[in-house]
């Protein structure tokens, strides 16, 4: 269970768009993260999604009519931490920009003084209307955050910009808006996923790394205000929104990209699992299975070793996948590769390490000549990422 929104109160405004049913998925994500949701619907929204569904999924009474509970607009505006409008119609955006307050939603919105996030959804013709664009520009100028819309197939059958963005993106915008930006000013360089060593045009050696741990680190670092560069080997999962994203295949390519980006990085998180050895010879064709008996291997470049040779290095964290939580090998790596910290995870234990959504780690670091070890509980990888980043912050800049 991720508790990123524990004790947070979120106002959700739902307006009359065909995409209104999608709000149910967003409510689910917000609730799973511990938020309490207070829903307000426009009268037109009730044509598209039933108040009953909204009320049941939020677990709080849905308000529509301004006179249903007089002063609810002020009470809601006072007690909530964030106002999310999803989906937002052209009508709502224009009304909010003009300060119109003619129903409960717009009145509450005008009274609300905290962060506002708007996720628009409409046909591209409406979205591109100069009135809508002018309202969006004005609202952005006064600090309102917009998520989307995106390009794609619209409900009316046309293609274009106007689709509501995915639930995960809206969820991330909410969590990010409510997260302290304690890594602002840091440039975090993260490597993630496996690498490949090609045998021939279609066959390669790799490992089971999924990229989940590195992606979680990049996502949480971004959420906490850092500039993030993510260098990823092949992974099937959707990368998080970061400042720069590079996709690589081989360990050599990963090394090259790390070296290209390292100068401006203040923190390097080597969460990737580059293969240690690769075929000595590459056949630029498909090898006939009868023509080969064995494959000779050679060592790949050791990225951390190369980084350790640099004069000016960021705060460098290595990740060590070990069979069992024996810290001796990790300590040796910490010393030999002059790391600032090493994160050790067990590849044998169930629900930890490669491919798993959860992890249990030991963080190892040195203060003076003394080694320190901190073992975490078994937690979702995003929470593990949070703990790692907090520890780095503490070691790098002090508490
Ligand atoms: C079937 C249908 C779908 C609609 N979808 C949208 C939409 O996706 N976005 C939008 O801005 N307006 C859409 N509208 C128009 C709005 O419902 C209309 O502008 C309404 O006045 C919005 O009211 P509200 O902003 O108070 O909810 C749609 C209308 C209909 C009949």
TrEMBL record:
Enzyme Commission identifier(s): 4.1.1.36, 6.3.2.5
Record-annotated Flavoprotein domain positions: 9-173
Binding note for cofactor: Binds 1 FMN per subunit.
Needed co-factor(s): Mg(2+); FMN
Gene Ontology MF terms: FMN binding; metal ion binding; phosphopantothenate--cysteine ligase activity; phosphopantothenoylcysteine decarboxylase activity
InterPro entries, sorted: CoaB-like_sf, CoaBC, DNA/pantothenate-metab_flavo_C, Flavin_trans-like, Flavoprotein
Main function: Catalyzes two steps in the biosynthesis of coenzyme A. In the first step cysteine is conjugated to 4'-phosphopantothenate to form 4-phosphopantothenoylcysteine, in the latter compound is decarboxylated to form 4'-phosphopantotheine.
Name of the molecule in the record: Coenzyme A biosynthesis bifunctional protein CoaBC
């Amino acid at each position: 269970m991720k508790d990123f929104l524990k004790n947070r109160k979120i106002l959700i405004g739902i307006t009359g768009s065909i995409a209104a049913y999608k709000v149910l998925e967003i409510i689910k994500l917000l609730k799973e993260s511990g938020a309490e949701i207070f829903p307000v619907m426009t009268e037109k929204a009730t044509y598209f999604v039933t108040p009953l569904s909204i009320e049941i999924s939020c677990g709080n009474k849905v308000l529509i009519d301004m006179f249903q509970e007089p002063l609810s607009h002020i009470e809601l505006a006072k007690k909530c931490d964030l106002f999310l409008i999803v989906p937002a119609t052209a009508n709502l955006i224009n009304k909010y920009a003009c300060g119109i307050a003619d129903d409960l939603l717009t009145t509450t919105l005008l009274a609300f003084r905290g962060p506002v996030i708007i996720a628009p959804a409409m046909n591209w013709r409406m979205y591109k209307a100069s009135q809508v664009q002018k309202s969006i520009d004005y609202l952005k100028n006064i600090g309102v955050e917009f998520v989307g819309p995106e390009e794609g197939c619209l409900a009316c059958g046309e293609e274009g910009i106007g689709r509501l963005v995915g639930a995960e993106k809206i969820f991330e915008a909410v969590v990010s808006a409510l997260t302290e930006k304690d890594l602002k000013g840091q440039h975090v360089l993260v490597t993630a996923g496996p690498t490949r060593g090609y045998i021939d045009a279609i066959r390669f050696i790799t490992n089971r790394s999924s990229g989940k741990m590195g992606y979680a680190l990049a996502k949480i670092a971004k959420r906490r205000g850092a500039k993030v560069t993510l260098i990823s080997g092949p992974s099937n999962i959707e990368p998080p929104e970061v400042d720069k994203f590079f996709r690589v295949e081989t360990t050599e390519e990963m090394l090259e990209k790390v070296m290209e980006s390292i100068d401006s990085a203040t923190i390097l998180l080597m969460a990737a699992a580059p293969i240690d050895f690769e075929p000595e010879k590459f056949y630029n064709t498909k090898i006939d299975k009868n023509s080969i008996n064995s494959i000779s291997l050679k060592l790949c470049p050791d990225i951390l070793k190369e980084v350790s040779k640099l004069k000016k290095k960021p705060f460098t964290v290595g990740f060590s996948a070990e069979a069992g939580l024996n810290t001796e090998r990790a300590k040796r790596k910490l010393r030999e590769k002059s790391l600032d910290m090493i994160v050790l995870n067990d590849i044998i234990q169930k629900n930890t390490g490669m491919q798993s959504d959860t992890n249990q780690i030991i963080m190892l670091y040195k203060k003076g000549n003394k080694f320190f070890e901190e073992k975490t509980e078994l937690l979702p990888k995003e929470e593990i990422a949070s703990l790692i980043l907090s520890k780095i912050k503490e070691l790098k800049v002090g508490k």
